[in-house]
Amino acid sequence: MKKGIRCALLLAITIVLVACQQKLTLKDIVECDGNVVFQHDKIIRDAKNYYEISIGKDWKRELFVDQQQSRIYAADTTKNYSASFLIDVTRFDGRIVLDSTFQKNIISQIKSLPRSYVIKEGFIEFQEQPAYSVFSFQKTDTAVLYQIQCYVAAQDHYFLLSSNIHGNQNLSNNLCESISIFNSLNLIP
Fold first, then answer.
1. Domains in the chain, please, with CATH?
2. How does pLDDT run across 67-122, given as a tens digit for each residue?
3. Which residue(s) pair with 153 in the sheet?
4. Which of 99, 121, 123, 135 is most deeply packed, by most CB within 10 A?
5. Tens of pLDDT along 127-173?
6. Which residues touch 92 (CB under 8 Å, ≥6 apart)?
7. Rounded to whole angstroms, what are the CA distances from 15 to 2, 6, 19, 20, 117?
8. Are 89 and 158 spatial neighbours (Cβ–Cβ below 8 Å)?
9. pTM, entire model
């Protein structure tokens, strides 16, 4: 009788623990508290009309398209260089497999650059899709660059959401604003 109660209790605890596990998000990788509100009232569509993002109305933006990809580049040109960042949202045709091999390849690419370091990385969920994100840092003799990369897998395509942040000035706000723009990604049916 006691064994039955113990087994039932153990099973109940296991179910509760598994059910209560929260999936990581991009804010867990970059550690953005998300309390700042950003004005992104300009909606930009990619050239193939697959998706759109929201950016600031004074932002400079460029579209790029070829057979395999559709890309939006955007930057707030009202900021000086050491306080700015560049957003790159790209939809690629084809599939990626988000597994430990993929993870090792991305980390290896980052570490192959001189004076580059991974700050935090991990498998996450982005807009209910499986994703892998990495937050990294590179220091050169003249500049400091922080980078957020988020690979989002889908059925027949994938997205790479990237932000290159130049310098330490306004770093926390730039990180959170980058995530805010990534979260504005809207797929067009």
1. 23-187 (3.40.1000.10)
2. 999 999 999 877 777 778 999 999 999 999 999 999 999 999 999 999 999 999 99
3. 158
4. 135
5. 999 999 999 999 988 889 999 999 999 989 999 999 999 988 888 88
6. 68, 69, 157, 158, 159, 160
7. 20, 14, 6, 8, 38
8. no
9. 0.85
Task: Map tokens 């109940």 to a residue.
Answer: 12
Q: Tokens in use for 105?
A: 């390849």
Coil, strand, or helix at residue 45? strand
d(CA 113, CA 21): 35
| Structure-token pair, residue 185 | 């990604």
Phi/psi of residue 26, each to 5°? -60, -35
Q: How many CA atoms lie within 13 A of 98 on its CB side?
A: 22
Side-chain-facing half-sphere of 15: CA atoms under 13 Å? 6
Report the amino acid identity of residue 2.
K
Residue 67's alpha-carbon distances to 62, 63, 91, in angstroms, are 17, 14, 11
Between CA 10 and CA 3 the distance in angstroms is 10
Residue type, 142: T
